[in-house]
Each structure stands twice: as structure tokens, then as C-alpha cells.
Amino acid sequence: MKKITIVGAGLAGSLLSVYLAKKGFEVSVYERRPDMRKSGAAGGKSINLALSTRGIHALKEVGLYDEIRKIAIPMYGRMIHLVEGELSFQRYGKDDSEYINAVSRADLNKSLMDLAEKNPGVKILFNQRCSGIDFKNGEINFRNELTGETSLVKSDRIIATDGATSAVRLEMQKIPRFNFAQHYENYGYKELMIPSGKDGSFLMDKNALHIWPRGSFMLIALPNPDGSFTCTLFLAYDLSLGEENSFEYLSTEERADAFFKKQFPDTYEMIPDFKKDFFHNPTGSLMTVKCYPWIIEDRVALLGDACHAIVPFFGQGMNAAFEDCTCLNECIEKYGTDWKKIFSEYQELRKINSDAIADLAQENFIEMRDLVSDRDFLLRKKIETELYKKYPDTFVPKYSMVTFSRIPYSVALKRGRIQEEILKELSKGAESGESFDKDKADKLIKEKLGKIF
Amino acid sequence: MKKITIVGAGLAGSLLSVYLAKKGFEVSVYERRPDMRKSGAAGGKSINLALSTRGIHALKEVGLYDEIRKIAIPMYGRMIHLVEGELSFQRYGKDDSEYINAVSRADLNKSLMDLAEKNPGVKILFNQRCSGIDFKNGEINFRNELTGETSLVKSDRIIATDGATSAVRLEMQKIPRFNFAQHYENYGYKELMIPSGKDGSFLMDKNALHIWPRGSFMLIALPNPDGSFTCTLFLAYDLSLGEENSFEYLSTEERADAFFKKQFPDTYEMIPDFKKDFFHNPTGSLMTVKCYPWIIEDRVALLGDACHAIVPFFGQGMNAAFEDCTCLNECIEKYGTDWKKIFSEYQELRKINSDAIADLAQENFIEMRDLVSDRDFLLRKKIETELYKKYPDTFVPKYSMVTFSRIPYSVALKRGRIQEEILKELSKGAESGESFDKDKADKLIKEKLGKIF
Prior knowledge:
2 copies of one chain form a homodimer. Chain A is an alpha/beta fold.
């Protein structure tokens, strides 16, 4: 049978439907929300994302990259804003050929849906809420959110791409021996908007991801094509981390205003609607989801956030989900119609790497909010850059492995830790990024790392 | 308002209803299953439990201990069965005054229900499945499993004691910032029965918990009042731990029979229905549940397995749930009708200790299946006994703290780890339990442990 049901037409589900249509499958995608191309509703998630190598690879495979590239804004590095207003730029890659791309979640999703529907084998049905599943018989109940009509959909293959709060996964959780964990950070986030200047000009450097690292909290900003920036404030929910630095404490306009003025003086003037944004926009939560198994024999598979939602601090959530699609596609190429093997190899290849990017993303929060303005950290970064130049196929910075390569996340995590130890060792006696002990570096790298490229 | 709804009339729910009735509350207990006192259905769980100090304390408080004591069988220690048939006895406590009690889950539950219904303020409603909850309005939908009738129950206070697969918790999981993890061991269990001998005599020592430790798996047996023993085989599900030692491999009568004969030769003859038991009884799974928060303001609380299901290897699942009831009762005594404070202190006091007993129970599996026949472990045990004699209020064995005291589990875990380090240190130079370095012991204990009693 060539019929596949996908639950969820978000980024992962839409992309996957294209991959599968290209292989000749008949794909029905059931989406709970209305068609965002008509309603203008972008969903509750953050507005822009950082598209990088893994995601780009998938978009190239389905032939969409040239289109997306036109609406993406390259970000070549971090622009660090200190409290005093001082700026410093930390390049992400080795030169201008390596960058991440700010792209609108809604625009990307709409493009993927358009592309999907160009395939006669794909249909997307909207306003369809999954209200029950019979895994044994491959039957899903959907309820039309507009009409209240219910329908029973039977298919041989169900792939759930219904996100971090997946309804399909919630049903799987009732099956014995299904391991599951959802963990919330004690941090929430709030979106704020820096509008464009006159004539749609950008009020800050357009080609950077802006960070205001403040130790226990941080503000970031990504550019939008219209000249505006979408800012996100990551802040503890409650008072446990320090009196003023929490949503709980900032409960009055006066307190919020004073906090912002003090902590982000260079930005305060640029957000005219600060109080409105702060008190009217919802406070988002940050969840990590891990589960196992992801599959039920040859009949059901979870993909993307549905099985491995992560915190956003490495900009890899979407990229990881797209890489799931690439991997599943390769397994289909390898095993044809043997779905037991397809699903089982997909699970084996992706589970270990999803666990790794979950850990990497959590680590990167500490780096972003705290370390990027730390003297020792900056010294290690400088030594890292030197070593990368000297050993471009061996000592590849963790950030580069994750962002600018398709090296498995689990390998990036492991090598990243070894490299971090080497850097700590070398930075002990060093006063600058050039003055570290080169012979010791050669020895350590030879001992502990093999070539990766 | 004095009305409280309890979901689940298992051991914890039934006991809690008595505690609450004694405080003057009007309690309705909704139970999904039929009344086990009429139907004879004991539920899917293991048949006998090990009642110890924490559980006994609760039963004493509600006035049920004298009755239960009559149907309980004291177990004074572990009886280790080696493959060669050799037996060795390892005492649990310091003397015959310290023992754990084999008691039938069904009998205990029935007694608790009878006791509950003696209170005019308690009613238990059976065959009532929780089919939906509105936490905001304190409304629960129940569906009568016999008649199909549905009812809407509104109350100010909901306490969920509906076990490891709690329906109430599943609803709470959808609330933002609810942390949750369910973890299954790669081990399953199978119940087997050793019938009584002639005239209801016991075929093995009645007053012991029998263990056949075999490294990666084990068999245990607890006595029943009718002279039989309920055995439980704990075995890996799949082949990963060694070819023959898994349910997956033992898929034919021939293989299962050969395995049992080889591994448990002294027991093989005593289980006449081995093949029937092995292939007809269901394979149970072993789950650990952790979650947080346990409460919603002053309206909802989880209790017992519903918020902290653990593996059975320390015999503390029921004891921990009963201790939850004792704690909640104390919080009511302390705060009267301020349920916000009652629930919040209950959660604070119990969460940390539930996490601790979950870890202790997992550690004890390794001890039971592997270490109890290990030479170094036995040496450490002997030194432990000596030190306990010398420092009865300071060096209390971990097993005793957990089983024969009401020391918080978290304290038992912490002190247990310190003591284990001391024992490892002392056993290095020792050849027997008497020959260890006494001065060093004095020094280490003085340095690392304060008095506990």
C-alpha cells in the first residue's frame, strides 16, 4: 500500500509530505489549525528561526532552497551588547561563507505547504483535530473543529509530526513500556518588537544575531525582512534566581520598565511598545521532550518535536526535525517497502542524535546568557579559532559541527566535550589566543582526536 | 467546605479516606474497578507486599494494625538460595524484634475499605471510570463501567490516588510546566506459585523472604498464610543481557523448562504448574514515575503511585504511599482549613523523599539480584553489623533506616551513600567482618556522620 497519513502540517509534516510524494506515496496530512495561508494565523510559536546546514540540505533535496534563500537574512555571528552599551562581534564560522539564516516560521511553513500541494499525491486537510487512535488497526479519529463532524481514517502507515504536545504521543504513552519525559525549564520567554527605522531601515546591524547576555537571563534579537527585529527575553519564572530577575517580580509596569531601562539601556528606546508587548504578549514556556520507542512496528512513527522537542538555544529544533525527514527518506531508499526496517533504522539513527542535540541546546543556554561575556570563555574561543585554522579537518568547533556540518549531533557532543577539555588545559597558561603552548596543543589533539572530515 | 473527592480506592485511597473521615470530612471515593470484596478480583498487581515500619505507623494511626497483624507473616531476613542449593540467611534487623511483614494486597485493601465504610462520612462508589476533568471548576466526569451512565462530580478538593497510570495525572500533564517522566526497566516479572505441602505446611522456611540471586536476573518468594509461596521471576525482556536470560529467548516450553531446571534446581520440583504459570500468567512491567508539581493550588493533589510509582525492590511502594497519607494528615492538623498551605507543605515534604526512595529502590535491585551472593558485599555487610552495634544511634544500616525507621528517605539515601564509602574504605584491608581497622572506623564515622537518633 502506498497510502500514508501524516498528523500535523507544521514545518516537519509539510516537508515530509513532499519527500514522500516524491517517492510516489499518496499522502494525507491532517492539521488541527486552520490554513495559515488564508487565516493569517501563524500559531503560537516564535516568529523567526535560524535555518542552518542540516535544514538547508533538506530544503535543497526537495528543491525549495532557492525560494527560501530569497526571504532569509544571513547572520554571520553574535553581536554582544554589554550593559554599558559596548558592542562586540563574535563570528559564527570561519569566514563570510558560513552563516545562519533568520527566516520567518510562517513564511517557511506556507512555502512548504504550497510545494506539498503542487504534488497530486498530497492533500492537506485543515481544522482536523486528532481525537483518538487505534494503533492496532491503524485508525485515527479526527474531529473537524469548524463543523464538529468526525471522521475515521484508516491507513497502513501513520507518521505523527504534531509537535511538542503531540496527541499521537499522548496515546502511545498509555502503551506499556513507553518511556517518556517532559521537562520544563524554570525560564519563560516573552517576545518584544523593535520596529524598523525610517524607510524600513534596520536600527541595528542587520546581519547578526543580537544577544544581551546578563548572567541569569538574556535578551536576543533576530532581523526580519521588513527592517524590524523580533526580540525574545528569556527570564526565570519565579524569584528563586534573584529578586528582580523574574517574571514574578516584574508584575507591575513600574518594575518592568525600571528593569528594562537598567538592564538594556541601549535597547530601551528602540522598543516603543515595551509595556504593551511585555504585559500583553503571552509568556512562552521551554520544554524538552524525550521518549522511546518512537515507532510501533511498521505502522506508526513519531518525527520532529513530537518525539524530541528541545529548548531553542542552539537554533536546531527545526533543523533536527528536517534532518529526521532526510534520514527517513534515506531509509526508504535503502529498504523500499520494508517498513519494519525503515522505521526501525530511522529510530536507531535518530534517537541517539536527538538526545545529543537536546543536551547541546541546554548547554548553549548557559553559554549564551552567561559565558559569551566571560573573559576565560573568550580566551578559549580565541584558542579554538587558532586550532581550527591549523587543524581544519580535526579540531572543528562544536558550534560549527552542529551548525555548519551534518556530522551526527552525538559525535558533535562527544568531540565537543573532548575539545573543551583541551581548550581548558591550553588556556591555563595562556594570556591571549596566540600565546598558548603550541606543542602541547599538537600533542593533546594527536592523543585525543581523530580526523572528522 | 468539608467535601473531598478521592479518585481510586486502592491501598492509598482507602487509607486516606479513613484519615480524612477521622478529621470530619465528607469523603467520596470513586473506584474504576468493581468491588473486590464481592467480585473476588484482586486487580492486576502482585499478590503480596512487604509491610514495614512506615506502613505500620499509618495503620496504627487509623486503628487497623491489630487486625492486619493477624494475617501478616513476619520475615526476619533474606534466605539466599545459591545455584548449588546451598542456603544462607541474612538477617534484616538487629534481632528478632525487627522484621518485615508479608501481607496480601487484596486482604489489606479489603480491610481498609471495610474500615472506611464504617465511617458515615465515607462512601465508596465502584465501577466509576474518570473520563475527564475540569481542574478550574473542580469537576470530574465519571462513567459507570457497568451501566454506561455518566455523572459530573463537583468538589472543592480532589485527591488522586489512582495509581501508576493515573488518569488524573494524565490530564495534569497537559497543563503547561508540568514536569513528568515515566521510565520502564528493561526487566519484566512473572508470578509463579509454590503450593503448600501436606496439611498446609510450608515447603521452605516460612519466616524469610527467599531470594535466588543470579546476577542479571533473580527469583524471589514470599510466604502466604495458606502455606503457599508466591514467587516472582525478574528477567530481562530481550536478549541484550545474555542469550538465555530473557523472556524473549524463553519462548518455548523446552527452553523455559531447561532454564528453570538449570538456574533454580532446588525449586524446580516445588512448582508443579511451572509451564502453565510461565506461559499463562501475564508478564508484568516495572515502571518509575516522577512528576512535579503534585498539586494545583488548594484544589487538587496527587498521592501515592499516581505521583511516584517506584520499582518494588525495596518493598516500599505501599509504605511510601501510606507515609504520604500520614504526612497529609499532619499538614491538615497543622494548617486546619488552609488547603493552599496543606497541599503545598505536603508536596514539599514528600517530593524530595519520593525521589529518594525511587533511587533507593533501583539500587536495591542490583543488590538483590547480584550483590547478596558477592564476597566483598558480604564482608561489607559484616563490618556494617559491627559498626551498627558499636554506634547504634549513628551508623544505622541503609536497609534499617528505610525499613525499620521513619527517617526521611532522602536522609537515608544520603547517609547510606556516606556509609557505603566508609565500608568500602574499611573493607580494603580487612579479611573478615571483625578484622577491620577499628581506629580508622572511629575516625571516619566521627568525621562524616552525625547522630541520627
